[in-house]
Amino acid sequence: MVLKKGNTSPLIDRPLLNVQQVREDFPVLAREVNGQPLVYLDNAASAQKPRQVVERLSRYYALEHANIHRGVHFLSQEATSAYEAARATVAKFINAAEPRECIFTRGTTEALNLVASSWGGANLQAGDEVLITQMEHHANIVPWQLLEQSHGIKLVVAPIDERGQLIVEEWEKLLSPRTKLVAFCHASNALGTINPAKALIKKAHERGIPVLLDGAQSSAHFKIDVQELDCDWFALSGHKLFGPTGIGVLYGKADLLNAMPPYQGGGDMIEKVSFSGTTFRHIPERFEAGTPHIAGAIGLAAAMDYIESIGHKPIEAQERDLLHYATERMREIEGLKIYGEAENKVAVISFDIPGIHPNDIGTMLDADGIAVRTGHHCTMPLWERFGLTGTTRASFAFYNTRGEIDSFVESLTKIKRMFLGA
């Protein structure tokens, strides 16, 4: 982003995005809430779905549904083709070397738990260390704590600075011969901070340490290239990518995934079963026991196709503009403090107005038709670092507008006046 000195409006060299045309793809954005036009600023929790995704899901359930892989009849084979085509779409979207490196899961949380349970359970021993950061989502904390209890490993946490940025020098000092895994978020769901993933992965790999990258927030905001990043695993969620809930992806390097023991047992992940023992299939089936979320995978592919039809560069440019504009407008409110002011961040703003509880802010905003998130955002240790129990969070998508931000700031100003008289 290029800013002209003394000017609060960013001058962005970008392809133009017709936001009003894009908004027509999202029927929910035409709704009213409490008699006011809906302003949806809770995209980091879950993004809205374009009609292209809804229609694709409807078509599958109405005309194409059957169980996959095991049927010889037409519908089963048609559904199987659509499901595996979705896997190929995912692989292309994140630039995996081959589709079989993409495992369908219920979301980022299950993907992270899969690595912790399967790879971690088989490879980590008492005294081994897993290095994470202070800004992690609970989904990248709790699975490792479970391994602390069951295997005696040690969870090591790298600090962040007052701006919400990882202190890379301190992170690097924590790498040791005992570090057996590095896991961190590509972008923070609470602060918006984008971590320097490629550089961190390179530093870890120089020491022979594998890296698990939590891409729940990054994958919706900018282009992901897992081969360029060189991460060993990458996790994402469909519902944050304008796709269905209950579907996500674990990417992993093929050799690494094939060396991992199964996460769950059941149908379709087996090669041969007998009462004396069972042998297992290779990836991706190895980690997809039972009937999968077929419609979810197909809907996720439709969401990825939709993003590609718009283009990552226009999306990034629109969201940078929204982030900058919202930040400048919110700074006009005396006393409001923004948490997460990294130089490189996605369109997420967590903030606090001393003297007003975040839940009160969220409730009052909702009365004006404005949807935000309040609370700890599944990052309780992060807020402890800042001496808080939680914040209010506004998070933006490419279908949001400056006009919506103006309504948001106007409502915040009114709320502050009501509670604090100023």
Description:
The chain is α/β, with parallel strands linked by helices and 422 residues long. The chain folds into two domains: 19-30 and 312-420, Aspartate Aminotransferase, domain 1, CATH 3.90.1150.10; 53-308, Type I PLP-dependent aspartate aminotransferase-like (Major domain) (Aspartate Aminotransferase, domain 2), CATH 3.40.640.10. Helices cover 38% and strands 16% of the residues. The protein is built from 14 helices and 17 strands. It has helices spanning 19-23, 51-64, 74-94, 108-123, 142-151, 168-173, 197-205, 226-229, 254-258, 294-310, 312-330, 358-367, 380-385, 402-420, and strands spanning 32-33, 36-37, 39-40, 102-105, 129-133, 154-158, 179-185, 211-214, 233-237, 248-252, 270-274, 277-280, 337-339, 348-352, 370-371, 373-375, 391-395. Strands 4-10-9-8-7-5-6 form a seven-stranded mixed β-sheet, sandwiched between helices. It has a four-stranded antiparallel β-sheet with strand order 13-14-17-16, with helices on one face. The radius of gyration is 22 Å and the shape is globular. It starts with 18 loop residues before the first helix and ends with a helix. Residues 1-14 have low confidence and may be disordered.
